[in-house]
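Structure (tokenized):
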């Protein structure tokens, strides 16, 4: 009978890739509520059983079918614990995601459960009515969760905060890891092999160490098929890599002649007599003068011509009779066009 491996918060499949690299086999079951995440995971792990289900509602017993579960990996949403979360109110249902692991631990009894999250998960506690953590209850839910895991049979529990760069990965983010065992075996942590200063270990790896610099790709200009006229203009602009597909009068730009940008718009015109002041004494001029005149739903560029695309289409709900949006062709349907864009064209 096969020992199963389950990725409980599969996402796009990053953890599953790591598990496969470590164990030499793919995960057997992947769970995520998001169809897009499951689609990405399925593309990279075609032999895995994919469940597009709520982690709290999924019946793992139904899919495990009595087989032995050797490992469950769980990386619940970390944004509500992270110090980078900002001031946005938090949602209790998201912060409670780790508790779902307790239910599955009781149901299918994996030998080992490994969890990963931000280090601030240790401060996990209840929220007030405004969606903010209650200082006096800091860490209360974290301690409750750890106790529940122990009661569920995971009597061997260890936690550590690790920096991935210390083990050869090109990222310095610190993460909290917890290993829960119920099989009576010892918990073994990986040994550090790298350090920031390189003293006693090899020095941290950078992203550049993993890039094959011998393969820099091919230029879109070295090709047999003639380039579109618009693309040739881009070539003459010193290979600019930023594309503003609906530049208008470039109001969102601090530098309206940014040296790295190509400005596009379907219009080319100069409008006056708009944006009058309160007393009607002053006028302003709106100049729409793109480098390349084109429709953003039918861009004349080759695929992957730009590194960055700025997309700020007209998005007002109403346009005044003298507003410059009135001068845009079929402006009422512009919003609908936005969602018809083929991103590959940029």
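Design, position by position:
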């Amino acid at each position: 009978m096969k020992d199963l491996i389950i990725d409980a918060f599969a996402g796009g499949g990053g953890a599953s890739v790591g598990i496969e690299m470590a164990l030499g086999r793919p995960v057997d079951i992947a769970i995520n509520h998001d169809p897009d995440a499951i689609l990405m995971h399925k593309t990279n792990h075609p032999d895995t059983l994919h469940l597009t289900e709520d982690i709290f509602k999924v019946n793992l017993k139904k899919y495990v079918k009595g087989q032995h579960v050797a490992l469950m990996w769980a990386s619940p949403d970390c944004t509500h614990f992270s110090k980078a979360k900002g001031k946005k109110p938090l949602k209790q249902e998201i912060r409670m995601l780790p508790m779902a692991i307790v239910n599955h631990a009781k149901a299918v009894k994996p030998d080992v459960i490994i969890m990963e999250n931000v280090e601030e998960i240790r401060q996990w506690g209840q929220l007030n009515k405004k969606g903010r953590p209650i200082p006096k209850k800091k860490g209360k839910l974290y301690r409750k969760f750890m106790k529940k895991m122990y009661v569920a049979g995971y009597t061997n529990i260890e936690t550590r905060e690790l920096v991935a760069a210390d083990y050869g990965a090109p990222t310095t983010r610190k993460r909290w890891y917890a290993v829960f065992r119920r099989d009576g075996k010892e918990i073994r942590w990986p040994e550090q092999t790298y350090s920031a200063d390189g003293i006693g270990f090899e020095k941290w790896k950078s992203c550049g160490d993993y890039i094959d610099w011998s393969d820099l790709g091919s230029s879109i200009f070295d090709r047999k098929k003639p380039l579109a006229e618009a693309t040739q203009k881009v070539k003459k602009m010193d290979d600019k890599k930023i594309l503003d597909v609906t530049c208008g009068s470039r109001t969102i730009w601090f530098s309206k002649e940014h040296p790295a940008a190509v400005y596009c718009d379907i219009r080319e015109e100069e409008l006056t007599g708009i944006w009058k002041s309160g007393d009607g004494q002053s006028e302003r001029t709106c100049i729409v003068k793109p480098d390349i005149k084109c429709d953003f739903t039918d861009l004349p560029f080759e695929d992957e011509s730009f590194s960055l695309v700025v997309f700020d289409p007209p998005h007002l709900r109403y346009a005044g009779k003298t507003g410059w949006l009135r001068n845009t062709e079929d402006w009422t349907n512009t919003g609908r066009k936005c969602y018809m864009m083929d991103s590959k064209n940029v």
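Reviewer-requested clarification: The chain has eight helices and 15 strands. Residues 140-151 form the longest helix (12 residues).
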